[in-house]
Write a structure and sequence with these properties.
Blueprint: E1 12-14, E2 34-37, E3 45-46, E4 50-55, E5 66-69, E6 72-73, E7 78-81, E8 86-91, E9 97-105, E10 108-118, E11 161-167, E12 173-175, E13 188-190, E14 196-198, E15 200-208, E16 211-218, E17 239-243, H1 264-267, E18 272-276, H2 287-305, E19 311-316, H3 318-329, E20 336-340, H4 346-367, H5 374-381, H6 387-395, H7 433-436, H8 458-462, H9 468-477, E21 480-481, E22 487-488, H10 496-505, E23 520-525, H11 539-552, E24 558-563, H12 575-593, H13 600-607, E25 615-617, E26 625-627, H14 638-642, H15 649-652, E27 666-667, H16 680-689, E28 694-695, E29 710-713
Parallel strand pairs: 3-10, 17-18, 17-19, 19-20, 20-23, 23-24, 24-25
Antiparallel strand pairs: 1-29, 2-4, 4-8, 5-6, 5-9, 7-8, 9-10, 11-12, 11-15, 13-14, 15-16, 16-18, 21-22, 25-26, 27-28
Helix pairs in contact: 2-3, 4-6, 9-16, 12-13
């Protein structure tokens, strides 16, 4: 297998900020016909169909309007809605590429809309598909316990199927047999819309963009099948899109599970739930492909069931990457997000932390064993527990192209520097090569990874936790990584084209696009005190908050909630998290109904429920809510006492809380700024360790810049 070099450039740039139900009320003169797409943006249509709306002027009868698709009449696909003031219908049969819809009637100028249609197997905007790609449909278990079966083509496709399950009075889900209506142990539920319905769930399963997708909602078989104009009685009109976690091993596979669509707390209230296997980072550690897949799955949902009132993103860890980056870079797909065990992004907030930990662990164990005691090592890392160093170092293998290959990727297809130098590289950078580009000499993805000028352990030195000589030896010998993540004596230097692309594309979360207009709840079940350490560190929530502040001048649209981990991570069994869903619904409902003037952030703030504020919960058997602003660092607050906010190696080195500098600018070494006296010999060693200077964290990073726009395309 050979890689063709790809340019690290944005191929198509647009900055239109929304699509979805709001596009039914498009701008324009009310005395003219107007066409709009309800199921997607016009340029990202897929699978040959789209839910389309025609607005009709007051003086025109709906029966006098004709709709054409590239010269073929499709009027019969439409129906009159809104008292004859509009037509809506699913237009099918579109060819790949450019399609033109035209609406005409007597005495009124025609309306014209260009749609760009893409294959149901993708790609749409994430760039060329990754190869090789392992199909998993034969191992994918449906909600009824059966398998999807072998794929029907090389793109891992299967036929779409619909299954029904029901909630028993004993509190579990069971398959509903064909022809069975209401089993004797069937539970009933009252939705958030006040409807009492049998607790039967319709689950649609199929393949889109080489992913397996699932969609669930309350619906009783034997009643009319739901469509955009005949809603299921059990659907409350809202959609939750779930995102799964992980990252290591998240490449070259379709995936054997989605983010989950059978959550009782969601379904019993009437929410529709959707997800896909490529929206699980353990299958696909690429937020761009995740965004593309979510766009296509949501498009399918709207065409089948109609536009939801709003869509809530729901995910933890690798799921939080997706809620943040999809929300910011592809606005309109999500309207509000509930993110758990969160990070801003994978490529920088996480990778910089774990790669630094990998370097530190190598230094502590291999380069200078015994040079620093455990507490000194912990102080240099910034972590709350010494054990987190090794834990994070192991997770740092996601920058190594050999460590985290999925087991089902055949060995003969994998990269080996000697035996198979053109094989599949299993790392975060090659997964994102459509953005970063490739080295034309090696075929490897370019890397925005850098530690030049970073003074590891700087705060520990100033706090006198380590000595000057220990600080100097650490920085003299910590080294960096080569292209295969082998430890080398030289510091790592980022590729500037990839660094620039990281900022412009939103691979490094900006926070100033879609997230600036979005209600956000950051929920954290605290895990940093676990004996083995944990990657899900609380400072990452503040990194996101800091980016919001830098981009927008405020983080008023983000609320932090913290409790202990008694419910096992991101579980709706937690009353706090379950109530967060209710509060997000209230927040979005109030926001949608607020027609008063004001900036987007003003409207978001005044729509926020009064009881939704930063808070933590005590660790008692019956936890008490402590409503107080959540703050980073060592502030002596009740919540920080209960749930300390620790740091990272780069924060200890003086880096910003935002964690948004890929490659720092350098300034000359100043021996007077270390808080401890340096001898002439030590000052000389310091300058030799940093011949180009040390990081100037007060300056913007090299190539640091804003987004090139939203809804960027990297080819198809």
């Amino acid at each position: 297998m050979r890689y063709a070099p790809l340019p690290a450039v944005v191929l198509v740039t647009t900055a239109v900020l929304a699509w979805g139900p709001v596009t039914a009320h498009i701008a324009g003169r009310a005395d003219r016909l107007a066409l709009s797409v309800l199921s997607s943006r016009p340029e990202v249509v897929s699978a040959g169909d789209a839910l389309v709306r025609v607005r009709i002027p007051d003086r025109v009868s709906a029966g006098d309007v004709r709709v054409m698709r590239d010269g073929t009449e499709v009027t019969k696909s439409f129906r009159s809605v809104d008292g004859g003031r509009a037509l809506e219908g699913v237009v099918e049969g579109m060819r790949l590429g450019r399609n033109v819809l035209t609406a005409t009637t007597r005495g009124v100028p025609p309306a014209r809309l260009v749609l760009d249609n893409h294959p149901v197997t993708g790609p749409v905007f994430a760039g060329p598909h990754e190869r090789p790609f392992i199909c998993d449909t034969a191992a994918f278990t449906t909600v009824t316990g059966s398998r999807l079966g072998a794929p029907v083509d090389a793109e891992c496709s299967v036929a779409t199927r619909v299954d029904h399950v029901y909630r028993t009075t004993a509190g579990r889900f069971a398959p509903l047999r064909d022809g069975e209506r209401r089993p004797p142990d069937l539970a009933w539920t009252t939705t958030s819309a006040g409807r009492r319905v049998p607790y039967i769930v319709r689950v649609e399963t199929g393949t889109i963009n080489r992913a397996v997708y699932e969609m669930s909602m309350l619906h009783e078989p034997g009643t009319p099948a739901p469509d955009p104009w005949r809603r299921s009685a059990g659907w409350n009109g809202r959609l939750i899109y779930t995102f799964g976690g992980g990252c290591p091993g998240g490449w070259y596979v379709q995936g054997r599970a989605t983010g989950g669509v059978m959550d009782d707390v969601m379904l019993r209230q009437g929410y529709a739930v959707a997800s896909s296997s490529l929206n699980v980072f353990g299958n696909n550690c690429d937020d761009l492909l995740a965004a593309e897949t979510m766009s296509m799955v949501k498009e399918r949902f709207v065409e089948a069931y109609g536009p939801p009132a709003f869509t809530i993103g729901w995910g933890c860890s690798g799921g939080s990457y997706q809620t943040h980056q999809i929300g910011d870079n592809y606005p309109g797909l999500l309207d509000g997000i509930v993110s758990g065990c969160s990070f801003p992004d994978v490529g920088f907030s996480t990778v910089n932390t774990i790669s630094d930990a990998r370097l530190l662990d190598h230094y502590f164990r291999e380069v200078a064993p015994g040079a620093l005691g455990k507490e000194q090592q912990r102080a240099v890392s910034g972590f709350g527990r010494w054990e987190s160093i090794a834990d994070m170092a192991e997770r740092g293998g996601r920058i190594d192209p050999r460590i985290f290959c999925p087991a089902r990727l055949p060995a003969e297809l994998r990269y080996d520097p000697v035996a198979n130098p053109t094989g599949a590289r299993c790392d975060v950078y090659d997964q994102t090569a459509n953005v970063y580009g490739r080295d034309p000499r090696t075929g490897f993805a370019l890397r925005p990874l850098d530690n030049t000028g970073i003074q590891y352990g700087l705060r520990a030195l100033r706090d006198k936790a380590i000595s000057v000589d220990q600080f100097l030896d650490l920085n003299e010998r910590i080294g960096g990584f080569d292209a295969d993540a082998n430890h080398v004596g030289k510091r790592t230097t980022a590729d500037l084209a990839a660094t620039r692309a990281a900022y412009r594309s939103g691979r490094l979360l900006n926070g100033g696009a879609g997230l600036a207009r979005m209600p956000m709840i950051d929920y954290r079940a605290y895990t940093e005190d676990q004996p083995q350490g944990d990657i899900h560190m609380r400072f990452q929530s503040f990194a996101t908050r800091e980016r919001l502040e830098k981009a927008n001048g405020t983080y008023a649209n983000q609320v932090m909630l913290v409790e202990d981990d008694r419910y096992g991570g991101f579980s709706s069994a937690s009353p706090v998290l379950a109530h967060a869903l209710t509060q997000m619904d209230q927040w979005l409902t109030a926001l949608a109904s607020d027609g008063r003037p004001g900036s987007p952030i003003d409207r978001i703030v005044r729509a926020k429920p009064g009881d939704l504020t930063d808070a933590c919960w005590t660790r008692e058997a019956r936890p008490r809510k402590v409503a107080e602003p959540q703050v980073a660092g060592n502030a002596a607050t009740t919540c920080n006492t209960l749930y300390p906010v620790w740091a990272s190696p780069r924060l200890v080195a003086g880096g910003p809380m935002a964690g948004d500098i890929v490659k720092c600018r350098l300034r000359p070494v100043d021996p007077a700024e270390y808080g401890v006296p340096l001898t002439t010999e030590q000052a000389g060693r310091l300058r030799a360790a940093f011949p180009g200077g040390v990081c100037d964290w007060s300056a913007p990073g090299i190539e640091q810049q804003g987004l090139a726009g939203t809804w960027l395309s990297f080819g198809h």
